[in-house]
Amino acid sequence: MQFIDLLSQKDRIRTPLLQRLERIVDSCQFIMGPEVTELESRLAAYVCSRHCVSCSSGTDALLMPLLAKGIGPGDAVLTTPFTFFATAEVISLAGATPVFVDVCPETFNINPELVGRGVEEALAKGLKPKALIPIDLFGLPADYERIEAVAASFNLWILEDAAQGFGGSFRGRKAGSFGLVGATSFFPAKPLGCYGDGGAIFTDDDELDRLLRSVRIHGSGVDKYNNERIGINGRLDSFQAAVLLEKLAIFDDELDARQRVADSYSRRLEGKVTVPRIPEGYRSAWAQYSVLAASSSERDQLMQALQKEGIPTMIYYKIPLHLQKAYASLNYKEGDFPVSEDMSSRVFSLPMHPYLKDEEVERICEVLLA
Question: Fewer Cβ neighbours under 10 Å: the N or C end of the chain?
């Protein structure tokens, strides 16, 4: 059984994809070719964003807005410790300091009520709070109504980390469209993934769009040999754009299939484990189907039982960021973010993809319920 089944998806898009790839080979426009321009246009329309800037990875999609906005030494950027390392890593790469804010136990996403505490911590450390990076964890958009209000009250601009949330929505607004700027990842395991690394950035701000396009190509000005600022090599190649264009054509259908799988899991597993809660007005992209066991030991038992039956599972994330060795210099300690620490000790994820068969879901649930 596959944790994420890219083979079935590949068979579905194989013919039109190979045609696109052959055209690229014939044109020899391998970097920033017409497929990239087409992809940016289609992604912007999908998200209902004025601008889309493609880039070489989800990490660069988070880093580029920080560089474009001049985030650097002495600045604090708030985010959560219950996420993949890249979210905080880009803050450090920009020269700023991450300040962590705990999550809501119901959604795994940042708790808006605790943002003020993070601002106070930053000020106490002599830092200037500048920005907030909420994460749309496991596919569920964060509570942007409350987040945008609290961010405005502290004069923080928002960089939405929609690396897992792309395809999700909150009250009709698509993930990637919240805050000043949104970022997503096209890593192959994501709901919309390419066949390598890729990412995209969304904004309605014309000036930020101009700066992002400069940062993407070494801080270029009128051409790539006229450099106005420090940037990166963040371009998306044409092959990855071609893959994404074909996958985007079937994306909504795949999201519907993911929802059916999630509904099946939740109906069967309610009461055995804590299943995900999707608040009213939200739609998850179901990047992962993550549940909570009653304890760390029960998690181990359940995962071992599944493994014995050839069923893969994963833990996202076993060590919260404030306890990672890389951030020892921030002087956080165990107990500082109790919800994130509790989640890390009990969470695990089940196979989730659009091609998971009903009988496979049934088999997974039978093992867990035994």
Answer: C
